[in-house]
Each structure stands twice: as C-alpha cells, then as structure tokens.
Amino acid sequence: MLRMDQDRTSSAAAAIPKRRQTLSAAMKRTSEWIHSQDAPNDITVLVGGTAFNLNKFLLVSKSGYMRKLISQANDSEIIKISEIPGGIEAFEFAAKFCYGVNFEINPENVAMLRCVSEYLEMTEEYTDGNLVRRSEDYFEEVVLANLSAAVTVLQKSESFLPISEKVKLVSRCISAIAYMACNDIQFSLSTDSHASLSSSLTQSRAIMDWCGEELTILRIDTFKKLITEMKAMGFKPVALGPILMLYVHKSLRGLDLLGKERKKMEPKQEHEKRVVLETIVSLLPKEKNVLSVSFLSMLLRAAVFLETTMACRLDLEKRMGMQLGQAALDDLLIPSFSFDGGILFDVDMIQRVMMNYLEHEADEGRIQFDIDDEFTSSISGMDQVGRLIESYLAEIASDPNLPISKFISLAELIPEQARFTEDSMYRAIDIYFKAHPSLSDADRKQICEMMDLQKLSREACAHAAQNERLPVQIVVQVLHNEQQRLRNASSRNYYGGDSPAFSQKLSMFRSNYHLETPSDELSRLRSENDNLKLELMRMQAQRRNEDKPSVKQAVSGKPPLPKKSLVNSVSKQLSRLYPFNRADGAKTPSRKAMTKPAKDRRHSIS
User: What's the domain of life for this entry (predicted)?
Assistant: First the structure.
C-alpha cells in the first residue's frame, strides 16, 4: 500500500515561501485514500492555493496535461495549475480517479467531471476507461434520458463555460430538454391560439407540474437558447406562456412597480434585470391570447421602471393593444414613475395602446362601413373597450397635473359608434373640471364638445342642468334636448308608436342597458318636465320681482290681449338663445288638425 513520504513532504514545504507546514484542508479530506496507496508522494501540485502531495507516475499514466507539466518542470517537485474547471473540488475528483478510488457520478457532478477531465486530457489515449469516457457514458445514458437531470446538468454547465460549450454539454442538454418537452404527453392535446385564456388554465397547471421551477434556475442567456430550440422543435405557444411568466416572476422579484418610491437598486443589478426583461420580451409568442393582459401590463410597468429600450416597450404596447378587450382598469393604470411633479400615470402609453387596438381591429376586418356609412362592426367588444377607456379617463382626471391636451387626445380615440351613452364621459369630464377649477370657459367648452349631449341619460341631464362647473351654453343645450326628448316621446305616443326599424334598435338598446318601457319612460319624462316648469316659474317670478317692469295700458278700443303662457315664453327664450331647427323626424299633423278658427289667431304670441 502507498504510504505518505513525510521527508519529501517536509522538503517540498520548505521550498515554498510563507507556506504553512500543516496539511491543507483538501489534503485532510484526501489523506485517508492517499495513505491507503502503496506509492510514494514525489510531487506537490498547487491548485488555487491548496497543495496536493501526489505520485507522479499515477498522474502521468492517466492525464496528458499532467504529463506535459511534469516534463516541463525539470525535476522540480512543485507544479502549479491555474484556472482549472471546478477548482479544488474538481482536481480532487481527478486525483482520486488517478489513484483508483471509487466515487459516485451523479447529475450534480457529471458536468464538472466531464470538463475537468477534458482540461486534464484524461482520454482513452492514455488508458482505457479513462475519466472522459466514464463521464461521457453517464451523461449519454442517464442525463440525456431524464428531463430533470438534463436541466440540472445544463445549469451546472453554466459555471464551466467555455469548456462546457467545447465538449457540447450545453447544446446536447438543450436539444434533449426541447425534444422531451415537445414529445411529452401533456402537450399532445390540440390547442387553439384563439382559445380563451381560462380554457388553458388546466394546461398551465400541468406545465408547472411538468417543469416546476427547474427552468427558472437557468441564466438568461442559457434560457434564451433553450426557448429558441423549443420553438424550433414545435413547442406549442400556449404551453410556452406559463414558462415565461414563471421565469419573469422569479427574475424580477422585488421591483416596486406601483411607482410609490424611487429606485433602490445598484446599477449592476438594474442592468441585469433590464437584460432579463428585454430578452423575455423578445421570446414572447406572436400568437394572440397566449399571455394574459395582466401579465403584459406587468411587463410594461417593469419596462418603464427599468427604462428598457423603446423597441421593447412598443412591442409590449402592440401586444397589449391586440387584447385590450380583455383588460381591466387596473391593467391600464401604469405609473409614469415620475417623481418631479409630473403626471401620475403614463397617459401617452395608453393612447398608443388604444391606437394599436384600433389598427388591429381594422386589420382584422371587424371595423367596416357599408354603403350608407353605417357601422357594421361587432359593437360589443368595441363598446367594452370604449367604456374601459372612459373609466380610465375618470380615474386619471383627478390628477391636477394632467394637461387638457392629453385628456382630449385620449377621449377622441373612443369610436362614436361604440358610445351608446355619454354618462361615463360626462362623469370623467366633471371630475376633470373639479380637479382643475382654473380652466377657462373656452377650455371647458372645448372639452364638453367631445360629448353628444343627446346621449345623456335622464339622471345625467338632471345633474348637468344644475352643474355650475359646466359652461352656460352646455346647460342651455341640455335643457333644450330634454324638452325635445319630451316632445318626441309625446309625438310618438300620439301617432301610434315608432317605426319597426326604430323599435327594433330601441328594443336592443333597452335590453343591453336595462331601460324602462316607453309608457314608463313617458310618465317619467312628463313628471320631470313638470318639475322643470315649476323651476322656471320660480326663476321667472324672482326675475319679475327684481326688475319690477312698468305696466302698459291699452290705448285702443280693442280688448286687451291675454297674458302670454309660461310654456310659450320659455320656448321663445330658448329658441333665441339656441335656435335649433326641428329635425327630429316626427310626423306632421294633418291639414285639418293644423287649421284653426280665425278668432284663435288673435291670442297668438308668435
């Protein structure tokens, strides 16, 4: 059996300046198997500052690299190895192999053994069954046949670059993982890129069970190579989405995406996260409905926070615009991360998202106009997006730093055909007026021009009639429209109802918005009109008391004209303030009904 040569060890130690006389930690770990060998220790190998006292013959018999070093040492008893893959631990395994000591090869150390054996040139050229062949056999027979083992070896290989690339550990692991993933039974089910996100939740859970967090341990450059290979082999996009989401959530953990405080990261850490995010965005599937809008919104927040490239942000905005119909209000509230007194939310980004949505709908052919310029699109989806943008406007309207140009530009993107009612827009405008009390009348009128006042509900009209923040012209127009609505309702009731086409549209509108029947609506309109008359009478009486006009007596022998009725007076004043032509389409009474006795004309005030 081999025994340690203490005299040779002491002399070698004396030749090393400032070296401790005690055995290194590595030699303590290996003293048992060295003592058990019947070979003298005639050379000291320094690896990373640790000394190994070994036998020359056992080393050169299996390592071509050690043979070169020893032959170049000129009978020196000390040689030094630097930058060995795996460091001290790897060399210790190689030394054990040279001494014939058995040890276990497993997925945790096979990458290290394969790389260190390549570095030390432990090939079949020097002995049969050398360490290169042993580690290669295990890698091909065990690792490449097991998904979990392949992922583990791939992650370990990242520490041994570039030699792990030289021996093709990385490329072979990636190919094996991609192949097993594409042929796994869990992904053999047919999937549709247009299927709803909820229908893919079961597959998402199966994907998480299949790979768990194994792929998230990979570095971003290795992860990119793996995902690219999986795509090339036909890995389904619906299964790829959850993997990317899991990797992003783990890699970008700890970011403050709510915009409450400034960044608290080192520049190096921020750069690493920025690279991760930009790489993930480049790997996102092109298919629609593969990723949720909430996930895309989270990526957008992170992109703004980390200040990624504009190309990265524009790509995310386009993807989010394609699925804007699935978004919630919280998905649009992306902070501007401006702490210098700017606006709270990134309104320009949402405006670009909305423009991407409209362009996508036009490209898909869902926005079309027939010969009569009637809107033939699927109103439900666009109406939902319109109400979403109106809710967003109401949310951001309270920001005192929001300029009027941004508010109007975003509001104008909402298609008119999708706005059945203007109540939400009126609410957003009223909130904006309340948060910006210093607006001029011209600015207020410009903002109100975005509304179609005829689409306001009765409740909104009642509120607008008493809203002191609205311009006077808008209040007058609201009152006039309310009067016109009552006249139209009375006219339809008098002449026997509406046309079939109008009734059909009105019925569909009532079913969508849960409106009342015509009789109930007419009764309510009459009641509100009576209240309006009473209010106007009180205003007229108050004005009469303030002005106290003189009473003119009749000078002719003709009997005095009767007093003007209140309704006709109000109508005449409204017509002078806002001269609308009656173009409501109501039927004209018959000629007989229009003919009146001449004596009635004496009492006309028109």
Answer: Eukaryota
- CA–CA gap between residue 551 and residue 571 (Å, rounded): 23
CB contact at 8 A, 47 and 84: yes
Residue 193 CA to residue 134 CA, distance in Å, equals 46
DSSP tally for the chain: helices H, then strands E = 29, 3
Residue pair 42/8 in contact (Cβ under 8 Å)? The answer is: yes
Please name which of 331, 242, 338, 241 lies closest in space to residue 285, comparing C-alpha atoms.
241
Contact 336, 304 (CB under 8 A): yes
The whole-angstrom separation of Cα 277 and Cα 283 is 10
CA 318 to mean position of chain CA atoms: 11
Q: Are 48 and 13 in contact (CB under 8 A)?
A: no
285, 237 contact by CB (below 8 A): yes
Q: Output the six-digit token pair for 327.
A: 């978004």
d(CA 214, CA 162): 23
Bridge-based pairing of strands 78-81 and 43-47 is parallel
Give the tens place of pLDDT for each residue, 489-511: 666 554 444 444 444 544 554 45
pLDDT tens, 13-43? 333 333 333 344 444 444 444 544 566 778 8
* 226: nearest Cα among 184, 174, 278: 174
CB proximity list for 305: less than 8 A, separation 6 or greater: 255, 256, 257, 259, 263, 337
* Separation of alpha carbons 117 and 153, rounded Å: 16
Q: What are φ and ψ of residue 87, in 5° steps?
A: 65, -145
Dist. CA 57–CA 368, nearest whole Å: 86
Classify residue 547 by burial, with Cβ atoms within 10 Å: 0-12, 13-18, 19+: exposed
- The number of C-alpha atoms within 13 Å of 510 and in the hemisphere containing its C-beta is 12
Q: Spell out the alpha helix ranges (H) of 436-517.
A: 441-448, 458-465, 472-494, 500-513
Nearest Cα to Cα of residue 96 among 120, 126, 68: 120
Quote the CA–CA distance of 226 and 249 in Å, as a whole number: 18
Query: Helix (H, G, I), strand (E, B), or coil: what is residue 342?
Result: coil
User: What three-state secondary structure class fits 558?
Assistant: coil
Look up tokens 């209040």; give the residue.
Answer: 475
Q: Which residue, among 253, 251, 173, 242, has the nearest Cα to 219 in the 3D structure?
A: 251
Tell me the one-letter amino acid at 555.
Answer: V
Angle at 268 between CA 307 and CA 219, to 5 degrees: 90
Other CB atoms within a 10 A radius of the CB of residue 240 amount to: 22
Write the CA distances from 271 to 301, 307, 353, 492, integer angstroms.
16, 10, 26, 69
Cβ–Cβ < 8 Å for 90, 126: no
To the nearest 5 percent, what fractions of the chain are helix, strand and coil? Answer: 60, 5, 35
Distance between CA atoms of residues 396 and 423, nearest Å: 17
pLDDT tens-digit map of 340-391: 666 789 999 999 999 999 998 887 765 544 434 444 445 567 888 999 999 9
Q: What is the pTM of this model?
A: 0.69
Structure tokens at 10: 């002491």
Q: Where are the alpha helices (DSSP H) in 6-63?
A: 6-15, 25-35, 56-60
